[in-house]
Write the C-alpha cells for this entry.
Amino acid sequence: MTAGNRDVHTWLTERVATYLRRSPQDIDTSRPLADYGLDSLTALAITADIEDEFEVTVDDALTWDHPTVDALSAALSGLVGEKRV
Amino acid sequence: MTITTTGLAPKRADELEHLLGSLADPANPTGATAILAADERAEMLTAGESLLHSYGLNAEFVPPELGGRLERADHLAEVMRSLYRRDPALGLGYGASSLIAGVTLWTAGAAPQREHAARLLLDGHRIAIAFHELAHGNDMAGTEFEATAAPDGLRLSGRKEVVTNIARADAMVVLARTDPGSGPRSHSLVLVDRASADPARLTDLPRFSTVGMRGVQLGGLRFDDLPVPASAVLGPVGSGLETALKALQITRTVLPAMATGILDTGLRLTVDHLSARRLYGGPATALPHVRSVLAGVFADLLRAEALGAVGARALHLVPGAASVYASAVKFEVSRLLLEAMDRLAELLGAHFYLREGPTALFQKLLRDLAPVGFGHIARAACQMSLLPQLPLLARRTWTRHGTAAPADLYALAEPLPPLPYDRLALHAGGRDPIAGSLHTLLDEPWAPEDADLRDAVAADRAKLAQLACECGQLSPVELGVGARPEYYDLVTRYVRLLSRTVCVQVWRHAEPGNFLADPAWLRAALHRSAREPHRPGPLPAQVEDTLLTELLDRRDTGRSFGLTGRPLAV
C-alpha cells in the first residue's frame, strides 16, 4: 500500500481501525485514541506507521500532542504534502 | 566532541575505593562493623556521608559542562559500585536519589535551572525526586498531586510519599498534575526550592520504615497551596511524563548496574566463609555442588555487568534505542542479582541468617538488594513498557538487516561522546541495533575452536526470527496495560536473546589478554541463560574450572568479581 493520492485522514482511520480490529466507519475520528484503548504508550506505534507509509520523520511525541485522528491528520497534512510534491 | 577518558574504570574509582577503606577492618568507620551498627539503628552511616561529602561525590551526578564529573554512564556505575559493595543505603541515600533528580534537570531544565541544580549538588546539597504517591505506584499518569495556575505562578497541593531524603533535601523535583485531563500531557515537573518555600505550607510526614535500606530517610511531604513561580516548571507545561520517560532511562540503566556491587560482596563473603569451612573432611569449596553454584553466580555477575555496561554505553551511542535497553537492563540485571544472592544464601545456610559474625553483612546486603526489583520502576512495569514496542522491533529490526551499532558500544574501554540528553526518545521506533547484530554476527570470522559459540548465535538468530513472527502479528492495542499475561513472556524471551547477544559482542570486542576475551565466561553466560524447561544444569567441567580458578585468584588478590576485576580495599 502506498500513499499515492490517498488522503492522510482516510489512511490513519483505516490504520487505527486495523489496530482495533474494527471497521473504519466505527471510528469517531474526533475522539481521543485513548478512548479506544490506544493509551499513551501503545499510541506511539502509530508514529512509526506514519513514517513508514509517508516516508517522513515525525516527532516521537506526535500522538501525545495530537491525540485524535482529526488532529493527527491536520498536523501531518503539511508535512506529508510537502514530501509528496 | 569525544571525551578522552578511556578504560573500564576511571582512576577516581580507585581513589574512592581507597578512601572508603577495608570492609573487614573493625576499626574502619566505613567498614562492615560500622555499617551494620548504623543499619541496626536504621540510621545512615554518618562517617560515610561525611566522607562522601568531602570527596565531593555529588559531582559524579553533574555534567562536565556544569562543573561535574558525569562524563560516562558506565564509569558512573563503576564509581558507585564502591558504595553498593559496602553499604547500598549510602549508594541510594547519599547518591542515587540526587542523580535521579539531576537527570530530569539536565534533560528538561532551562539553563538557570540546570545551573542552580548543579551548584546545589556541587556544594554537597541534596535534590529529592518527589514522584511517588503510595496510591498510584508506578502509574505515573495517575498522579493526583496538583499544580494549579495562579496569577503569579503555580500553587502546589497534595502529598508525596516514600520519597528518599525529602525531609533533608534543599530542593526537589515534583511530578504534578497541571491538567485535569487523563492524557499524557497532563503533568509537569516542578523544581521546588525548599529554602525559599513558605514553611507554613509544607508539612513533613512521618518517616517510612523498611525491611532493607533501613538507614535511607524515606519521608513524605504534604503541600498546602504552596506558591511557586512559573519559572519553576521544567520544560513546557504538560511535558512532565515525557521528560520522566526520557530522563529516567539513564537511571533505570545505571541504578541496577551499580547494584551489581552488592552481589560482588555477597560472593566474596560466601567464598571467604566456605574456603575457611571444613565439611565432611575437606574444605567446603571442594564440594562439587558448592563449586558449581559459585561458578554459576560468578558467570551471572559477569553477564549482569556486561548488560549494564552495554546499556550504559547505549545511552551515549544509540540514545534513540535506550527506551528499550533501559527497561531490559532494569528487568534482567535485577533478576540476575536477586536470584544469584538467593543461591548464595542457600550455600551460606544459617550464616546468611545471622546478624553477627563474619558473614553478618550478607543479610543486610540481601535486604538492601530487594528494591532493585521494584524501586524506581518495578520489573513488571518494565515488561509493560517494552510490550508495545515489540511489534515495531520485530518489523523494523528483527526480520531484516538494520543499522549496525558503532563497535564502541561493545568495546568497553573505549571513550564515549557526552550523554545526549536531548536525543533520548519515548520509544525506539523499532530500532534495536544490538539484537539486530545477530543478523551479521554469523558472517564475521569465527575460530574453529569456537564453533559451539557460533552455533549458539545461529540458534539465537533463529529464535529471534520466531519471536519476530509472533510479535509482528500483534496489535499495539493488545499490548497496553490490559495485555494478556502470556504476552509478558514475549518480553522475557526478547530480553534473554538481547542479553545473550550483548555477552557475545562484549567477548568479541574484549582486549586480548583480558579475562573477558576468554571464551570460558561466554560459554558460562550462554549456558546459564539457555532456555530450559527447568533451571540450567551445571556448567561444563572445563568452563567451571576456568571460572573457579579466576574467581579464587581474584579473591586471593583482592580484586572485584565483575567486568573490571580491579583491585579493591577488601
Remarks:
- The longest strand of chain B covers residues 153-164.
- The two ends of chain B are 37 Å apart (CA to CA).
